[in-house]
Amino acid sequence: MGQRIKIKALLESDETNIDVTVKGWVRTFRNNQFIALNDGSTNNNVQIVVDFENTDAALLKRITTGAALSVTGTVVPSLGKGQKIDIKAKEIEILGDSDPEKYPLQPKKHSLEFLREIAHLRFRTNTFGAIFRVRNSLSFAVHQFFQERGFVYLHTPVITASDAEGAGEAFKVTNLDLDNLPRTDSGEIDYKQDFFGKATNLTVSGQLEGELGAMALSDIYTFGPTFRAENSNTTRHLAEFWMIEPEMAFYDLDDNMDLAEALLKYVIKYALDKNREDIEFLSQRLQDEDKQKPQNERSEMTLLEKLEFCLENDFVRLTYTEAIDILKDSTPNKKKKFQYLVEGWGTDLQSEHERYLVEKHFKKPVILTDYPKEIKAFYMRQNEPDANGRETVRAMDILFPGIGEIVGGSQREERLDRLEKRMDEMGIPKEELWWYLDTRRFGACPHAGFGLGFERLVLFVTGMGNIRDVIPFPRFPKNAEF
Ligand code: 4AD
Ligand code: MG
After folding, report:
1. Are strands 366-372 and 392-400 parallel, antiparallel or unpaired?
2. Residues in contact with 358: Cβ distance below 8 Å, sequence separation at least 6, in sequence order
3. Is residue 68 helix, strand or coil?
4. 385-413 burial string, b = 16+ CB within 10 Å, else e?
5. Which residues contact 399 (CB under 8 A, 6 or more apart)?
6. 60 CB contacts (<8 Å, ≥6 apart)?
7. d(CA 227, CA 203)
8. pLDDT in the model for residue 482
9. Domains of the chain, with CATH numbers?
10. Residue ranges of the Aminoacyl-transfer RNA synthetases class-II family profile domain (predicted)?
């Protein structure tokens, strides 16, 4: 009886004439003789050669696409092209049958839309196998990056009573009977009777709690799920997404940008080294897709080239005001001078502006800083007004080609008077955030941090076009099936 070996390890070793056991799911079974078996450790299948003349016909019938098998046999040099070894089966055990009439995954190319509808089975395709192995490596690399630098992984709560972004996009959490809500005398919902004795919601960001940690541990990061009830019917938004949020005491905005750029390069390089084969597969997939498109819509670079380009180049850093000046004078397409930013300084950039800067103007990742105060969150450090009296904050957004905003962060407002004034202006309840304000009362110091949207990172590294395809179980409006 051979030892069970994962298919990836088996294919990487040169040893033949040994007995092994492999377990996995049937991708195809040709001529009653050749099983392509996959166990998810790699996209490469191992070929099992079946001695069909000496195998029970009833068993052969049960070797169908999707069935789970355990196969013991001898590793032999392959007869076929493209693979080094085969396994000559000695013993085949069906662990789980798969009715070929009903199994939704056929050995052919399925559309991503169709696979989204069977998200519970899509892991079994090459594309999703590659995506989720890359996602796994990126996630590990994030931890490794911070751990190498002495950051403390701080678990911030999923249920909170605050809305860190103040955008009113939080999902409520309650155990009240919705059909019979308790009311106060004035007719409002009586949250005192709710589980926590107050209104609570799912976190939109761990930042505020992260800041508390940084004010004692110096450098912390969170990496957890965050939730937003915003319009997530786009290819870039999810209602549940994972965010990496480091927070560092004694950092200013430049330090913050340096860290974010180093993190992005580190994790991309890690995935390129660790998952070369999967990324090459995804790169090829995109090239095949590109061939279907008209010449002018094809990508200038392959996925691999794009990732390597990103590692080799410094990100461009400029202020929001400088970006607006570029956009105002830009002619994004030949036919007409598109009127970018009609409303001018002070409005938020739309994704078409971001894409123009990154993909057409600079052709590199871009870090935009010093956004207008009015379009950013209350906690960002306020700059002195410029010569024109324009008010900005020490914000930074990192924009990536094909993605748009991948990171949002800032230096934080550590001055209590400035922070309280801004909260009043924006209607943020100070009494609710007394604990946050305490960090500005006792040993306040300059500090900064950012949030990296993990799925946007996975989108970039896998070259996929829709964020719903890079998270195992996407949550978006009217979808929480799996
Ligand atoms: O820019 P955001 O809203 O910033 C914050 O939440 C800060 N508290 C972060 C911090 O400074 N600690 O979100 C940060 C990033 C965005 O740049 C984007 O990559 C991602 O989170 N993001 C989303 N990703 C997927 N779906 C959504 N609905 C997202 N909203 C934000
Ligand atoms: Mg943002």
Report:
1. antiparallel
2. 364, 365, 366, 399, 400, 401, 404
3. strand
4. eeeeeeebbbbbbbbbbbbbbbbbbbbbb
5. 354, 357, 358, 365, 366, 367, 368, 405, 406
6. 32, 50, 52
7. 6
8. 85
9. 3-107 (2.40.50.140), 126-169+204-469 (3.30.930.10)
10. 132-472
- Ligand 1 atom with least separation from CA of 410: 11
Percent helix, strand, coil in the chain, to 5, is 35, 25, 40
> How far is it, in rounded angstroms, from Cα 448 to Cα 428?
20
% pLDDT > 90, the chain: 86
Closest CA to 365 of 456, 290, 284: 456
CA of 292 to the centre of ligand 1 (A): 34
The pLDDT value recorded for residue 2 is 62
What tens digit of pLDDT does each residue of 130-156 get?
999 999 999 999 999 999 999 999 999
The pLDDT assigned to 296 comes to 86
Ligand 1 centroid from CA 402, angstroms: 17
The one-letter amino acid at 317 = R
* pTM (2 d.p.): 0.96
Predicted complex: ipTM over 0.95: yes
- 273-331 pLDDT, tens digit per residue, is 999 999 999 999 999 999 999 988 888 899 999 999 999 999 999 999 999 989 887 77
**What one-character DSSP code corresponds to residue 348?**
P
The pLDDT tens digits of the residues spanning 25-79 come to 999 999 999 999 999 999 999 999 999 999 999 999 999 999 999 999 999 999 7
Out of 171, 241, 394, mutate this one to test ligand 1's pocket (max ligand atoms within 8 Å of CB): namely 241
Round the average pLDDT of the chain to a whole number and report it.
94
The span from the CA of 362 to the CA of 192, in Å, is: 54
Residue owning tokens 């949020």: 245
- The binding-site residues of ligand 1, defined as CB within 6 angstroms of any ligand atom, are 164-165, 205, 207, 228, 230, 232, 237-238, 241, 243, 245, 405-409, 449-451, 453, 455-456
Separation of alpha carbons 402 and 459, rounded Å = 9
Torsion angle (degrees, nearest 10) of CA 444, 451, 163, 346 = 90
Q: Which two tokens stand for residue 473?
A: 């179980």
